[in-house]
Amino acid sequence: MTENFTETVELAVEPNGVQAAIDAGEAIAKPTLLDPGNHYVAVVPAGGRLAHVDLDLDKYRDTPRRKEGRVVVDDVASFVHYWGKHADEHSEVYANVSRSKVEAVLDAHADDGPRWGGHRLVLQLKHTQPWLAWNANEGIKFSQTDFAEFLEDNLADIYAPPAADMLEIAQTFQATTKVNFESGTRLASGQRKLTYVEQVDAKAGQKGELTIPESFTLGLQVFEGFEVADEVGARLRYRINGGNLQLSYHLNRPDEVARAAFDAIVNQLTEHLDGTPVLVGQPIG
């Protein structure tokens, strides 16, 4: 911290010593360097003003004084490339699963002293659209038609039963909208059998049955840029309300699936960090 001191200096000036007094005053008022820190102090005459001119700005230099800034990349290969170019033995890496990101502090504090910590490298993972879609619609009670359309739109994500079987189920949902569902039973195979009665001219018509799976399996990529698909189990649920059929699904522990996918990416990254450990958490700042 720089403190300002005011010092009164009395000069004995002889009639023929005017120039000597001027020279002494200039010596007193000359800026003095305070060591360390590159700060100066100067004596300002009463009524005067001290102008500050910063001649140490990076924009006036041929090169900056130090590396700084925050670089964000989307895949491991880009992270590894930038890390290899700028990291040193004191660089640190942090993995934050809740924010789906890995952050490196390239100029982290050294063992023998502090550093700026202003040069950052971030691998910001993004969830794929299929992952977001299935998670966003979990637990929503669909009508038959809406659920059929949802299955058709996302058929490519269904791993088991085969997509053709799920498409047939979706088409059956669309074909049985004008029926009254009466009951549902669980079969020994684990499937559900739904019994319905067709409505023809406001009268009860022919009875029918609809068999749906109790569960199905999705093959989803959790993060963009990583081709490995993770299997996610889903439980199909139904409710009969006044003859109307409502359908929903519930994913089996999607948070654990996402954590496993994140850990796999961190492990992949660790192989290229030349022994630098990956810390769990986030850096200061």
UniProtKB/TrEMBL annotation:
Tell me the domain of life: Bacteria
Q: Which InterPro entries match?
A: DUF2303
Name listed for the protein in its UniProt record: DUF2303 family protein
Q: What species does this protein belong to?
A: Tenggerimyces flavus
What are the leading ranks of the lineage?
Answer: Bacteria, Bacillati, Actinomycetota, Actinomycetes, Propionibacteriales
